[in-house]
Design goal:
Elements (H helix, E strand, L loop, with lengths): L21 H18 L1 H21 L3 E3 L2 E2 H31 L2 H6 L5 H31 L7 H25 L8 H16 L11 H7 L3 H13 L15 H22 L9
Antiparallel strand pairs: 1-2
Helix pairs in contact: 1-5, 2-3, 2-5, 3-5, 3-6, 3-7, 3-9, 6-9, 6-10, 9-10
Keywords: Antibiotic resistance, Cell membrane, Membrane, Transmembrane, Transmembrane helix, Transport
InterPro entries: ABC2_TM (IPR013525), ABC2_TM_bact-type (IPR047817), ABC_2_transport (IPR000412), Nod_factor_ABC_transporter (IPR051784)
Organism: Micromonospora sediminimaris
Length: 282
């Protein structure tokens, strides 16, 4: 009995993978972060559903005017847009980064040749995409069900853009920074969620800001959410409503200044406190 030997297949060298530039690396990481976010149904439902549910509940219950030509719904929606942006950035990152750190994901990533900034860029892209989707859904529901009037001037949309951009940047950096306070994956929510809830109640999201106690207004003025809400009110509410603000106007210059300062504070905190490993790993 004879056996025949099949000739070996010719071995060809694998084509070298194309090297991506900085933008390509960031976009690739961003797509990965978005896919991971979408796989977590609980996070998707909470992040995108919470602002919508709150608008549906509060706007259905409170339909009175808080000022001539300004309904409670108009006022509340501006606060929920700001809250939604804080949720997709500060709250989500503050909860999920400790989970990744506890599972050793960050430790393994640090050991790869991939530049560390790519990981942060992926998080930022995920936050931006999620924030745009959440805001679009919130505006669509508000316009369809509660007759929200969208801005009609270019200036108003530009204001909407820079207030949202500065607010998301500040909240993203603060979310990355506060993630280092959580000792374990489970403690991330316990650290971040109470902070987010307190800020919502004192920053004029659920209640008219000037109706809150003076000391509460002063505390809220130290944090970004209050200024995000105020900046967005300048976009969606009549200019005359500015007279009802604590400073007698919407104070957009101060809004930009405070949010810009928080971007710097958040960046410094990230650079000085962020950890790739848990304390038990050293």
């Amino acid at each position: 009995m004879t056996t025949t030997t099949r000739p070996a297949e010719p071995v060809t060298a694998a084509a070298p993978a194309r090297r991506s530039g900085p933008a390509g690396l960031a976009l690739r990481q961003g797509r990965l972060e978005i896919r991971q976010f979408l796989r977590s149904r609980e996070s998707v439902v909470f992040t995108l559903g919470f602002p919508l549910i709150m608008v549906l509940i509060f706007a259905s219950i409170f339909d009175e005017e808080i000022a001539p030509g300004v309904s409670y719904t108009q006022y509340f929606i501006t606060g929920m847009i700001a809250t939604g942006l804080m949720t997709v950035s500060f709250q989500n990152l503050g909860i999920w980064i400790p989970i990744e750190r506890d599972r050793g994901v960050l430790k393994r990533y640090r050991g790869t040749p991939m530049p560390k900034w790519v990981w942060f860029a992926g998080k930022v892209i995920m936050v931006l995409v999620t924030g745009v989707v959440m805001t679009a859904l919130l505006l669509a529901v508000s316009v369809t069900l509660f007759d929200l009037e969208l801005p009609t001037t270019t200036t108003a949309w530009v204001t909407f853009g820079w207030v949202s951009a500065l607010g998301v940047t500040a909240c993203t950096l603060c979310g990355i920074a506060i993630s280092s306070l959580a000792r374990t994956a489970r403690s991330g929510s316990a650290v971040v969620t109470p902070v987010a809830l307190v800020l919502q109640f004192i920053s004029g999201v659920f209640f008219v800001f000037t109706n809150l106690p003076t000391w509460m207004q002063q505390v809220a003025a130290l944090f970004p959410l209050k200024w995000m809400c105020q900046g967005l009110r300048a976009v969606f509410l009549p200019e005359s409503f500015g007279a009802d603000e604590p400073g007698g106007s919407f104070e957009l210059t101060r809004v930009a200044l405070v949010l810009g300062v928080w971007c710097v504070i958040g960046l410094v905190l990230c650079l000085t406190t962020f950890r790739w490993t848990t304390r038990r790993d050293g």
